């Protein structure tokens, strides 16, 4: 077997892979990094399920190879700004009225996908200022949901690509590594859930989760051209009990091992989280295992 020189996500790079990338980089050096990443995607047939090139993944791989001294990339055309945290200093216009009582006292919340710049800024502002983890940097496939009662925002949800290493989830599905590599994009991860602190409506959280899950697969397909069949989330039990997920019929299937991804490696932080899953289709295992028909 050829020695593995570099691991990137689920891809193992051997000496001939590195040599190919070096030759590709040298051949298109004057065309810049974006052009090289697109050519790498085309050469490897590295495509998203919606048919678009995996340009972000290719650029990220090239940067990590450069960090290890395995390739030399051309200079940046523009200053590096992708890691600069977004500042939400300007307060957007939104209703901030205290809401209390039971969910039955209010009209049914409406869930919608965040699409325009104004809604995206409001979503980010609320997460940045009122969620303990702040506003996430969503890359790859992702969807933002914003929830209203009347003209007031009562919740924000963020959904993103599923985590790669989740042993208890893979066991629950019945996945081996090769099957997971093919079908991981058919799972969405609930990476943020916020109800602003001035909204104190009983049972709102579980109601919002149920409504969002009901439309999640359709929303995903409208944006990315494919459905999702399972939702996952990770609950920090040092802060939360997972009550709203339990009330919305999510299934607790285990714990994480207490590792977090840092760049291309996993680092142990010693804080395992509870893993909850929610099947979006009755036959989700069949869809996630092999049959997409």
From TrEMBL:
State the InterPro entries in the record.
DruA
Q: What is this protein called?
A: DUF4338 domain-containing protein
What domain of life is recorded for the organism? Bacteria
